[in-house]
Amino acid sequence: MSGKTGKLFIVAGPSGVGKGTVLKKFLEHNDNLIYSISTTTRKPREGEVEGVNYFYVSREKFEQMIEEDAFLEWAEYSGNLYGTSKKYVTKKLNEGYDIILEIEVQGVKKIMKKNLDAVSIFIMPPSQEVLEERLRGRKTESEEAVQKRLSAAKEEMKNAHLFKYQIKNITVEQAFGELQSVYESEKN
Q: Which element (helix H / strand E) includes 138?
């Protein structure tokens, strides 16, 4: 790498908004960008791989990591814990890579309080109805879990104004284009 420190980008938005799909396309088009893998107590979904999608740990192990101050941020969401490894992010930034974190709004607020030089981006659904369709379309969760996520989404949307950028995910192509523009603008 060039010896230049990388830049930290933080992406958040409600569950089911399509962050993962947009970020997958974004990462395919940017070689110097690394997706930070979060640690979670959530059970893997079908097709998810340890060390690729998440680092899966027990609740006890996660709580031990909190005590050891191992996280840049951590949050509880829908009954599960999620966190970003300080060591991993710092190492990659120092190597000159740009890092993108896909985290919950609670985690973004913690990072903002630390005054880290991070670019915050909130991805929004076109509407609450579309978000509900996307969540139900996953067919991975119970009705109770879907309702919990929809309720959490309404609360998260109230925080969109705290982010430097807001992108409405109407289509993957359009949201990708806007995210790419933000990235290029912030890098220059």
A: helix 128-138
Surface-to-core class of residue 30, CB atoms within 10 Å of its CB (0-12 exposed, 13-18 middle, 19+ buried): middle
Report pLDDT digits (tens) over 103-128.
888 788 888 888 778 999 999 998 88
Whether 131 has a pLDDT exceeding 90, the answer reads: no
> In whole angstroms, what is the distance from residue 101 CA to residue 82 CA?
12
Is the pTM higher than 0.90? The answer reads no
**Own/partner pairs, 45-51, CB within 8 angstroms, 24+ separation:** 45/140, 46/140
pLDDT digits (tens, 9 = 90+) for 81-102: 999 988 889 999 999 999 999 8
CA angle 102, 107, 111 (to 5 degrees): 100
Q: What residues have CB less than 8 Å from 110, skipping those under 6 apart?
A: 73, 74, 75
Residue 113: predicted pLDDT: 84
Measured CA to CA, the distance from residue 69 to residue 176 in angstroms comes to 34
* CATH dotted code for 8-187: 3.40.50.300
